[in-house]
Amino acid sequence: MEGYGLGTTSYLMTLIWIAVFWQLFSIGAVGLIFEVSSLFSNSISVVGLPIVPIAAIFFFHDKMSGVKGISMVLAIWGFVSYVYQFYVDDKNSRVVKKAVDETSR
Questions:
Q1: Where are the alpha helices (DSSP H) in the chain?
Q2: Which residue has the higher pLDDT, 50 or 83?
Q3: Which residue in 25, 84, 24, 23 sits closest to 49, CA to CA?
Q4: Between 74 and 43, whose confidence is greater?
Q5: Are 41 and 33 in contact (CB under 8 A)?
Q6: Which of these, 4, 3, 1, 2, lies nearest to 60 by C-alpha position?
Q7: At a CB cut-off of 8 Å and minimum separation 6, what does 47 contact?
Q8: Using one digit for the tens of pLDDT, what is the confidence trace for 3-42?
Q9: Which residue in 15, 52, 95, 100 has a CA-CA distance of 20 to 30 Å to 67?
Q10: What is the spatial distance between Cα 3 and Cα 20, in angstroms, rounded to a whole number?
C-alpha cells in the first residue's frame, strides 16, 4: 500500500470499488443466467471486456499498450463472431422450418 504511486487513499478506494463492482457484476451475471441463459450471460461479459481498458484510459489516465489493444480487438472479434454465428444458425433454422412446413402440406 505504501508503494502505490497514487497514494494510500487512492489504493484503498481502488480496492473498495473493485470489490463493489465485482459484486454487482456477479449478481448481474447470475441474474442473466437465471432469466435468459448462460450463453447470453457469457456474451454480455465478452462485450464488457473492451470497455474496462477504455474506461481505465479515460478515468485513470492509464497508458494504452499493445497488450490492451490486442485484448480489445480479440474481445470485439469474439462478440462479432458470436453474433454472426447466431445469425447464420437462425437463418438455417428458418430454411429448415420452411422446408418441413412445405413437406407437411
A1: 8-35, 38-48, 51-59, 66-103
A2: 83
A3: 25
A4: 74
A5: yes
A6: 4
A7: 75, 79
A8: 878 788 888 888 899 899 889 988 988 888 888 888 778 7
A9: 15
A10: 23
User: CA-to-CA distance for 13 and 97, rounded, in angstroms?
Assistant: 55
d(CA 100, CA 93): 10
Question: Which residues, in sequence order, are CB contacts of 11 under 8 Å at separation 6+?
Answer: 1, 4
List, in order, residues 6 or more apart from 75 with CB less than 8 Å away.
Answer: 46, 47, 49, 50
Is residue 54 within 8 A of residue 72, CB to CB? The reply is: yes
pTM over 0.70: no
**Distance between CA atoms of residues 91 and 20, nearest Å:** 41
